[in-house]
Amino acid sequence: MSIEERIREVEQKISAACERSGRSREDVQVIAVTKYVSLDTTKEAFRSGLAHLGENRWQDAQEKWFALSGDPELPEENRPVWHFIGSLQTNKVKDVIGRFTYIHSLDRLSLAEAIHKKASQLGIVVPCFIQVNVSGEESKHGLRPEELEPFLEKLSVYPSVSPIGLMTMAPYESEPEETRVVFRALRELRDGVRGRSPYGERLEHLSMGMSNDFEVAIEEGATWIRLGTILVGKEEES
Ligand SMILES: *Cc1c(COP(=O)(O)O)cnc(C)c1O
Questions:
Q1: The CATH number of the domain where 101 resides is what?
Q2: Cα–Cα distance between 125 and 114 in angstroms, integer?
Q3: Predicted TM-score of the model (pTM)
Q4: Containing domain of residue 150, as a range?
Q5: CA distance 218 to 48
Q6: 238 domain residue, yes or no
Q7: How many angstroms separate the alpha carbon of residue 184 from the centre of ligand 1?
Q8: Could you tell me if residue 237 is inside a domain?
Q9: Is residue 205 part of a domain?
């Protein structure tokens, strides 16, 4: 299947999920996760209109980043918007900040401090999603839900880090409906913190939903979905 065909199919599913839940299509943004595909496929995805690209390791992303965004003469509208969605090691912050617009995996203060330091050198503010481990799976990164409010309070000393929402990953379920509790819990966590904490007001967004479960995530309020396999495919390592 061509990328254009995949986009059309996914688009129909997104629209249907929006309709079922009374949401507007414009409130859901798509990140094309290119970690499983080659540079050529990534270029094709971008040319086909997928403007937001997600990667989860700098080592794997850099060839693509330099090919698509490395030319300083390139006008803004001809560049992808990069999202860093994987766990971010502190020693990679210097490579990632300034290149990736959004960070989806803020999960500790030491990382916030490192991002703040690099961002203030560059004179930028970095929009970040705070990753929350809602499902409690040991293999998943992220704060425990009850750690969110104290974390937000402490984050206020790093003004170059701008928390814009929450991110989570649901466990893989063969029956996607079973992920609903996870996505609903993330939304309720955001709503609660927004209502209560002076630091929670900016938490507008929910980054949740992947190939297997994005329709449920949309129904539960996702504003950013991260799609790899279903949208750009998965290629074998060459
Ligand atoms: C790989 C990855 C995705 C995309 O996964 P698919 O199931 O292929 O859609 C989304 N989010 C994160 C954090 C990922 O690591």
A1: 3.20.20.10
A2: 13
A3: 0.97
A4: 3-232
A5: 23
A6: no
A7: 19
A8: no
A9: yes
Check pLDDT > 60 for residue 54.
Answer: yes
Give me the phi and psi of 205, to 5 degrees please: -100, 155
For residue 5, the CA-to-ligand 1 centroid distance in Å is 20
Contact 111, 93 (CB under 8 A): yes
- Looking at the CA of residue 85, tell me the nearest atom of ligand 1: 13
- Expressed in angstroms and rounded, the spacing between residue 195 Cα and the centre of ligand 1 is 30
Pocket test for ligand 1, best of 35, 52, 53 (most atoms within 8 A of CB): 35
Count of the separate structural domains present in the chain: 1
- Helix ranges restricted to H, the chain: 3-20, 39-47, 58-69, 93-96, 109-122, 148-155, 180-196, 214-219, 229-232
Q: What is the 3-state secondary structure (H, E, C) of 160-216?
A: CEEEEEEECCCCCCCCHHHHHHHHHHHHHHHHHHHHHCCCCCCCCEEECCCCCCHHH
* Cα radius of gyration rounded to whole Å, the chain: 17
> What distance in Å separates the CA atoms of residue 15 and residue 42, rounded to the nearest whole number?
24
Residue 197's pLDDT is 82
pLDDT digits (tens, 9 = 90+) for 187-200: 999 999 998 888 88
Contact 235, 38 (CB under 8 A): yes
Pocket of ligand 1 (CB under 6 A): 33, 35, 56, 85-86, 169, 210-212, 226-230
| Assigned domain for 134 exists | yes
pLDDT tens across 196-212, in order? Answer: 888 888 999 999 999 99
End-to-end Cα separation, the chain, in angstroms: 20
